[in-house]
Amino acid sequence: MDTNLPARSSFPTRALIEAALGYALIVVTVWSPMPMRNYIGSIAALWISVALLLDGRSQEERGFSAHAFWRGRWALAIALSLAVIVMSAAAAAGTLHLREGSTGYKPPMVGYLVWSLVQQVILQLFLVPRLMALLRNFWASVLAASILFSAAHLPNPLLTLATLIWGIGACWLFWRYKSVLVVALIHFMLGACLAISVPAPVHRNMRVGLGYLHYRAPARAQLPSRGEAVFALPAHGASR
pTM for the complete prediction? Predict the structure, then answer.
């Protein structure tokens, strides 16, 4: 596994400013009410996008190559198998909720897939390289990034713990196979599995931040709506 420092490691001050401001905007977004949440979330997205565009990495280094995706296929198979096992156990326990009531509610899977990719882009391509430039140690950077990733899901205890464990695993997978698509798909499978296997009142519809505190148990358990339970997105932590 290649754990070399990124090419921009000679600019630690710039890395610190980019990472600190980007993460601060994420946290403020999570804890802001509407409509301020959308405004700050848009600024966060712009800041991170510009930083990624200017870092000079190739598409392969960004983890979008088909070869890297194929190399990581075994991890996708394991994640899918695990998700099937968990959902089967949830179905047996009566907690699986693919759709609720007579309305035929369907989880917004496409939207959650996009948000899973966005989260992993932020974690793998934005946070970890900049922390490596500062800490100059691969595993210290992974641990720090995973803690930050987990803290962004406070005060939801289930998601905070789950994202800490997954953050470390996702970083290892990405730096082992250099495929952000693989870790995004695994994130999607495991996150969707958790959302539909655990009763909504337990994880409060996968909400974090202000949305978690304002949660009121709905008449029907649902998957998170667009943008909830994600890292650094405008709709994260929505209060309704």
Answer: 0.84
